[in-house]
Design goal:
It is a single chain. Among the domains are: 44 residues, no CATH class; 136 residues, Immunoglobulin-like. The strands form seven sheets. An eight-stranded mixed beta sheet has the order 13-1-8-6-3-9-12-14, with no helix packed on it. Strands 15, 23, 24, 27 and 28 form a five-stranded mixed beta sheet that branches. The chain has two helices and 28 strands. It has 381 residues and is mostly beta strands.
Length: 381
Amino acid sequence: MRTKHLFIIQMMAAAAILYSCSSDDNFTAEEDGAVDDYLFVDCDQVPIRLGVGPNSIVETRGTGMVGSISTDTMGVVWHGERFKVLMLEQNSLNPTLIGEDTVLFDVDFKTPDNSPSGSILPVDNVSRYFPADGCSDFWAYRLDDAQVSVPHKTDTTWAVDLKIDGTQDVMVAKAIPTSAQKKALGKNKTTWYYSTYSARKGLEPAFQSFRHLMTRLKFYVVPTTSSAVNHTSGITVTKIAVSSFTQGSLAVAGLNDTKGEKQVITWNDAARDTLLLKQRDKTAAQPKSAPLVKLDPLVLRDSVKNRVYPIGESLLVAPDSMYVVKVYFTKNDKPYCSVDTLYRNTSHTKFAAGYSYNIRVRLNGDVSTATARSLFWEDAE
C-alpha cells in the first residue's frame, strides 16, 4: 500500500498531512476549494478506541456456553470478559505499523462490566494510536482456554490452533461499519476506515456481532418405564459422553473477507475424542457463572415416569452430521452403558454452528435413545 503525502506549506509554517487507504486514493480538498476537516494543522496522534455492541454474555474460562438462546431474556449485557484483537492493514495480512513497530496484534481486550455495549480496554492498559496515514481492519476472536498456539500466517489467513474439551465457546467478529457510517465519511471516502481520518470523523472500530462457531448440545433425561423409576431397582445416570472432533485451526483474519465470513474452524478429521458432560459447581457463590465440574449422578428412583429431567450444563462440540452418544447408568448397583447415534433429522442434516439443540435421552431401564430438537442460539442463522 503506497501512501501519497501532500504538504501544504504556508507562511507561519502551518502544515497538514493528507493520506490515502489505497494506491488510487488521495485525501485532497474538494474541487470547489473548500477546506474539509481532514486537513489538519497539527500532527497529534489519534488514539484507537474500540467498542462492542449488544451481543451475548460471555463467562469466565472453561464455563461452557457464551450467552443464551434467542428465547431467553439473557444475552444482553457484557460482564468484563476478554477476547483478542488483531489490527491489520486494510485488505491485507500485514500487521499495521507505526514506523517499524506493530500497533496492535493479538492483544487481550476487556469488555464493559454489566453493560450492553461500550468501549473495550486493553488488558495491558497500554494506549495505542492510529498511524498518520493508511487504513486498517480489526478482527477479534475468543477461544477461552482452547488456544494451543500463537497466530501463524498462511497464504490467505492468520490462524490459531485449538483443542476443545466440550466447555469452550469459540467466537469471532470483525469490526464492520454500517452503510450510514461509511457515507458519513464523505464523498469518495467511504473506504477510508479505520484510520486517523475516520476516527476524527467519529467512526471508531466496533465489534457489533460475534458469531458462535460451536454447536451446543443441552441434555435432558426421560425415564420411560416404571422399572426405570422403581424405588428399589430404578436407574441412576452417572455420565453422558459425546464423540466430537476436538482439534483444528481457526482462521482469525483473512484476505477478501469484508464481512468476516471466512473466520471459520477447519477441523482435523483424525482428531476425534470423547467429551464428557459437566455441570456447574453448586458450591460456588454464584452457581450460574461457576466453573464446570464433574457431573453429579442423576438419581431416577422414585421419580416420575415420562417426566423430563435436565442434566448437566451443556456440551459445546464441533458441528457435525451425527454424534455417538454414550449414556452410563447403574441399575441395582450394576453398571451399564447404552450407545446411540444422534442425528439432527431423518435427512441427516448437519448440526449447525451457532445452534443449540435440546437432546432428550429416553431411558427404559436397559437401553437409551437420543433425539434432537433445535433452538436458535444467539445470532444463529
